[in-house]
Amino acid sequence: MNILFTTLRLTLLSMGGILLIGLPVGFALGYFDFPGKRAIRTAVDTLLALPTVVIGLLVYAFISRRGPLGGWELLFTVEGMAIGQIILGTPIVAAYTAAAIEGLDDRLRQTLLTLGASGGRLALASLWEARFLVLVAALTAFGRIIGEVGSAMMLGGNIKWHTRTITTAITLETGKGEFALGIALGVILILISLILNISLSLLRRRTRG
Length: 209
Hints:
Layout: H1 2-31, H2 37-47, H3 52-63, H4 78-102, H5 106-114, H6 119-129, H7 131-146, H8 150-156, H9 166-175, H10 179-208
Helix pairs in contact: 1-4, 1-7, 2-4, 3-4, 3-8, 4-7, 4-8, 7-10, 9-10
């Protein structure tokens, strides 16, 4: 149960940061034209394929005791693990959201401007129109981070009762030959993903209805 709750806490914290950063960045990239947009879009697309161990190594260098953020004591904590997962998942949400906003009907923008929408209202209205693709983006990011092992091991240390998650526990128990426990944890991980997918599917049907 401790492993499960640690996993859920890490995932909720990470997804909160991913959506908080990824949605505005994705909207800006998909809606506005500005100098350097192509370079930023290329950087976001490049980060999609960045290996998780590289992310873990970079974050480790920053939050270790000798790093610039060492005074915050984030290494081997859930919060430190969340930083790595936020870096991992944010490009996914940003890229998908940008593509979704670019795919909206041009008449929508004109209608919103005619109705006086601007700033936050304009962004929220556009994101709402693209909500299904935004949900896909969030779900894709969720799938990437909940099954992540590399940076979680480096930044969390797989400490029992503290930073051990389902994926790191599966790696540990399988290495010890405890295949039954590893399989049980794997089933739990699949169930979490299944429950989320079903919930999003039901939400989508109700919204369309």
